[in-house]
Recover the amino acids of this structure.
C-alpha cells in the first residue's frame, strides 16, 4: 500500500512499480465513498494474478471519504493480511501547496509524454490559500503518523526518492526488497507539471516569498530547485 497525501509523487511511484512484471499496483481505488471499502480492496486484488498486488490510499480518503469507524484498526488489519506499507511524504510544504493550487486552477493533475509538449503558464496565487493548504498538509501529516504508529512501514519522500530521475531505480528496488523480488529497469512517461524555478511559475512571486519569509515556513524557500512534480523522462 502506498499511503500518504496527494501531490506527493504517488502516481509516479505507481507508474514506476507497474514497470515490474510481477507487480500490479492500482491507483486510488477508494477515491469514491463505498459501503464496504475493505471488501472492495479484496475484490480489486482478486482481479490480478501478479505475485504482488498493491494500491495507493490517500490519507484524506481514510479520514473524510470512507465510512471507516476505526481507521487505525482498518489499516492494521490490512497489514496483518499481508500488505506492506510505503509511507510517501513531500517534505517541502510550500511546493506541496503550490502543486495542489496549480493542479486545481488548471484542472490538470498529470501530463504524459505522448500528450505532447507541456506549456507552462504562470499562475497568480492567493497568499492566504497557500498558507491554508500548508496547514492542511501539516494536519494530515500528524494524522498519518498517528495511524502508522503501530504499523511497520518504509518511508519514501518525494524530494529524496522521486523528484530526480536518477533516484527512480533505487526507489523501486527498495520497495521490491520488501517482497524479495528482483527488479528490471524502470521508466516513466510522466512529465513534470511545474517549472523548477518558482519565479517562473508564480506571477506574484515576490509577494509570496515575502509572506513566507515572515512565517515559520521560511526554511522551505531556501532552495527552489525542488519545485517540480516529476523529473522529465527522456
Amino acid at each position: 500500500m502506498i499511503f500518504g497525501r496527494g501531490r506527493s509523487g504517488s502516481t509516479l511511484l505507481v507508474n514506476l512499480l507497474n514497470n515490474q512484471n510481477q507487480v500490479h499496483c492500482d491507483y486510488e481505488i477508494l477515491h469514491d465513498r463505498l459501503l464496504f471499502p475493505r471488501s472492495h480492496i479484496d475484490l480489486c486484488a482478486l482481479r490480478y494474478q501478479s505475485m504482488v498486488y498493491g494500491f495507493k490510499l490517500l490519507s484524506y480518503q481514510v479520514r473524510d471519504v470512507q465510512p471507516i469507524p476505526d481507521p487505525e484498526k482498518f489499516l492494521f488489519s490490512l497489514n496483518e493480511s499481508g500488505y506492506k506499507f510505503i509511507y510517501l511524504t513531500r517534505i517541502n510544504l510550500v511546493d506541496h501547496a503550490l502543486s495542489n493550487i496549480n493542479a486545481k486552477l488548471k484542472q490538470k493533475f498529470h501530463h504524459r509524454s505522448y500528450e505532447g509538449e507541456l506549456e507552462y503558464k504562470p499562475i497568480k496565487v492567493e497568499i492566504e490559500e497557500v498558507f491554508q493548504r500548508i496547514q492542511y498538509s501539516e494536519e494530515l501529516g500528524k494524522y498519518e503518523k498517528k495511524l502508522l504508529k503501530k504499523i511497520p512501514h518504509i518511508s519514501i519522500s518525494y524530494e529524496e526518492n522521486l523528484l530526480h530521475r536518477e533516484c527512480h531505480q533505487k526507489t523501486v528496488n527498495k520497495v521490491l526488497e520488501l517482497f524479495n523480488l528482483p527488479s528490471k529497469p524502470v521508466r516513466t512517461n510522466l512529465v513534470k507539471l511545474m517549472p523548477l524555478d518558482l519565479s517562473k511559475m508564480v506571477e506574484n512571486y515576490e509577494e509570496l516569498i515575502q509572506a513566507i519569509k515572515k512565517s515559520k515556513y521560511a526554511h522551505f524557500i531556501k532552495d527552489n530547485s525542488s519545485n517540480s512534480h516529476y523529473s522529465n523522462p527522456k
In short: The mean pLDDT is 92.
